[in-house]
Amino acid sequence: MSPRAVLVGAPGAGKTTVGRLLADRLGVPFLDADSAIEAEAGKPIPEIFFDEGEEHFRALERATVAATLESFDGVFALGGGAILAAETRKALAGHTVVYLEVGFADALSRVGLGAGRPLLAINPRATLKHLLDQRRPLYEEVATVTVVTDGLDPDAIAADLAARL
Ligand SMILES: Nc1ncnc2c1ncn2[C@@H]1O[C@H](COP(=O)(O)OP(=O)(O)O)[C@@H](O)[C@H]1O
Ligand SMILES: O=C(O)C1=C[C@@H](OP(=O)(O)O)[C@@H](O)[C@H](O)C1
Ligand SMILES: [Mg+2]
């Protein structure tokens, strides 16, 4: 069993939003890794970061992604930092991985002041710029399909993807 599509990309790329729309169009279930982690931990992502730290969150994330890749056949949206783990990049090989590409200006306007995203709690502009630069090669490495999202409406992106998958 393999997800119909795994969505990767930076915070604000639209993984959660476009993923849900894409799943509706394909008539398959949708799962967001962050929501699965929150359900498992029994608390929101910012509280996991605050109480247990980022390393603990990343361990939960690696385990959730590994298990879901083997057991889920819908559309699966990852958190923006999931691909930082070499283990996760390796596990993505052989799957249909969609990279939702977003430039700095659109990403910034979409995430705003970073509410709900603990990594962007301090200095969201500079942090987001750094994340985009650091992670771009990793998203490119795992992607089998790349979609530019700048200036495009989520539903148009989902429609384009549904036609391509
Ligand atoms: N293509 C888009 N155009 C404009 N706004 C978008 C687009 N995709 C997502 N958004 C908005 O940006 C914010 C972040 O989207 P989200 O799906 O949570 O991104 P991600 O899961 O990749 O971090 C949400 O408020 C969402 O409504
Ligand atoms: O970029 C990151 O490292 C993170 C992105 C978030 O998901 P989104 O990319 O859906 O915002 C969430 O997993 C967590 O706050 C860490
Ligand atoms: Mg998301």
TrEMBL record:
It catalyses: shikimate + ATP = 3-phosphoshikimate + ADP + H(+). Keywords: Amino-acid biosynthesis, Aromatic amino acid biosynthesis, ATP-binding, Cytoplasm, Kinase, Magnesium, Metal-binding, Nucleotide-binding, Transferase. SUPFAM superfamilies: P-loop containing nucleoside triphosphate hydrolases (SSF52540). Binds 1 Mg(2+) ion per subunit. Substrate binds at D34, R58, G80, R135. It is found in: Cytoplasm. Its cofactor is Mg(2+). ATP binds at G12, A13, G14, K15, T16, T17, R117. The keyword Protein biosynthesis does not apply. CDD domains: SK. Pathway: Metabolic intermediate biosynthesis; chorismate biosynthesis; chorismate from D-erythrose 4-phosphate and phosphoenolpyruvate: step 5/7. The keyword Cell division does not apply. InterPro entries: P-loop_NTPase, Shikimate/glucono_kinase, Shikimate_kinase/TSH1, Shikimate_kinase_CS. GO terms for biological process: amino acid biosynthetic process; aromatic amino acid family biosynthetic process; chorismate biosynthetic process. One of its GO terms (molecular function) is ATP binding. Its EC number is 2.7.1.71. Mg(2+) binds at T16. Catalyzes the specific phosphorylation of the 3-hydroxyl group of shikimic acid using ATP as a cosubstrate. Belongs to the shikimate kinase family. Monomer. This is Shikimate kinase. It comes from Dactylosporangium matsuzakiense.
